[in-house]
Amino acid sequence: MSKSDADLGRLLTEVCAANQELSARGLARFTFGNASGIDRASGLVVIKPSGVAYSQLRPDNMVVVDLGGSVLRGDLRPSSDLPTHLELYRAFDHVGGVVHTHSHFATVWAQARRAIPCLGTTHADAFHGEVPVTEHLSDRDIASEYEANTGREIVRCFGGRDARHVAAVLVAGHAPFCWGASVGQAVDTAEMLEEVARMAYHTMALDAAAAPLPTALAEKHFTRKHGPDAYYGQGKST
């Protein structure tokens, strides 16, 4: 087996497991969600097949496409959200995995068309500032290339924002997308997003005027876990 075949085999296994994790962690009910991963060396993307129950997923029924969306391997249709994933891979070259869910609280914020404010240190540990919400697509964008235009709107939303430090977005009226250096990391981000969305919802239920965390405290919590001066955890082994 060649190295490229072995790399693709690993990615098929990782993406299958990530999709099953979405269901196991309660982030995707029914078939409402999908995960993908990319091999940057080959430009191949692996994604969940459309509408297939998570319990029926296997590495060999994942769909392999190129960055143009052409199916290269697999007998099933890829997720209908594939064009959104591809737009994110093309725009954010550090991303190795993308996850889309309809997790309850994150979707509530998306439906309300409200960014999730950084109200506490739990949020600040994971996201550098608010988790943004996109604008609604125009009728024209919905009628033609809807899923690709969703991805383009996410990319527009991140103009001036660092997609490495806020690895999630709420699509207005729809649901969240998350990403990471790997598809497994993207799943973890989706779970963290759901947790901070739930906390923010209940915080604002208690106090609708709750203010964002003071900047100095938010910065401290983010930078102690992320970036060159991070000191949380054990660091890299030597």
What would CATH call the homologous superfamily? Class II aldolase/adducin N-terminal domain
Tell me the overall shape: globular
**CATH C-level:** Alpha Beta
Low-pLDDT segments: none
* CATH structural fold name: L-fuculose-1-phosphate Aldolase
For the biggest β-sheet, the strand order reads 4-3-2-1-5-7-6
Number of H/I helices: 8
Mean pLDDT: 96
Order of helices and strands: HEEEEHEHHHHEEHH
Q: What's the N-to-C terminus distance?
A: 31 Å
Summarize the structure.
With 238 residues, the chain is of the alpha+beta class.
Walkthrough of the structure:
It is built from 8 helices and 7 strands; from the N terminus they run αββββαβααααββαα. The protein has 238 residues and is of the alpha+beta class. The protein has one domain: L-fuculose-1-phosphate Aldolase (3-Layer(aba) Sandwich). The radius of gyration is 18 Å and the shape is globular. It starts with a helix and ends in a 15-residue tail after the last helix.
Please write out the topology.
Layout: H1 3-24, E1 33-39, E2 44-47, E3 63-65, E4 71-73, H2 82-91, E5 97-101, H3 104-111, H4 121-126, H5 139-143, H6 146-157, E6 168-170, E7 176-180, H7 183-206, H8 215-223
